[in-house]
Write a structure and sequence with these properties.
Blueprint lengths: L1 H16 L7 H20 L7 H20 L10 H4 L3 H23 L11 H5 L1
Helix pairs in contact: 1-2, 1-5, 2-5, 3-5
Length: 128
């Protein structure tokens, strides 16, 4: 999972970097940098996810991303085909936000489990 988080961190930074010549590039650089930060926290500072303030910030990010996915959802028919997304900016933006949401959910999947530990069964609870 750490390798995948590192790969996603790199990809999100790369996605942000290629926005430099876009008319609204600063916005999209920010949009791609935010999940990169969450990947970095999941990769290097996993224990921070136990803090309530970090959890609130994470879920606020997810909620804003869901709103963005709904707002930027491509209305172009067959937006997932190369002929469409290669030529239609709104299709690329909508798909980009879908990718961001998937990355954020993967970060949550990675940080919710104890790292390298096998959970021991609660024998006292089983006997009651």
């Amino acid at each position: 999972m750490r390798i995948m988080l590192g790969l996603l961190l790199f990809l999100m930074l790369l996605f942000g970097a290629v926005q430099y010549n876009d008319p609204d590039g600063a916005l999209w650089m920010l949009i791609y940098t935010i999940p990169a930060v969450w990947c970095g926290l999941g990769l290097f500072q996993r224990k921070l996810f136990t803090l309530k303030s970090v959890k609130v910030a994470y879920w606020a990010t997810v909620a804003l991303t869901v709103i963005g996915v709904v707002y930027f959802w491509p209305i172009t028919p067959r937006f997932w085909t190369k002929e469409v997304w290669y030529n239609v900016e709104t299709a690329r933006e909508g798909m980009g936000l879908m990718i961001v949401l998937c990355v954020l959910l993967y970060v949550r999947f990675c940080v919710r489990r104890p790292q390298g530990k096998i959970a021991e069964p609660d024998y006292e609870a089983q006997q009651a």
